[in-house]
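task queued by scheduler; priority normal; single chain, no ligands, no partner chains; default sampling; output format set to structure tokens
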Amino acid sequence: QVQLVESGGGLVQAGGSLRLSCAASGSIFSINNMGWYRQAPGKQRDLVATITSGRVTRYADSVKGRFAISRDNAENTLYLQMNSLKPEDTALYYCSALVQSVMGVTLRYWGQGTQVTVSS
């Protein structure tokens, strides 16, 4: 079994910054794509940013130039540096990872989410 645990969410004023972390643990052989997604109340879950094992990144247009995704492959940890935060960034942020287990099975896992609230 694999677990993803997010941390770093909180309440911040508009224009501020937060750094989210996501630690993966368990029966991990390798981690392929990882990503951050967010879901605001009453809305669907949307992609924020993704990163491949080779560190190729992709961002939603709404966060380009403000957010930066990164990963530490040795520590199986994913990060999201969020700068110039706006009230519309308020959401529950989820970490996701495509993980190959030591048994050779590849599955997508999700964390429990961390709340980010940006006040105006």
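post-processing summary
- The chain has a mean pLDDT of 97.
- The longest strand covers residues 28-39.
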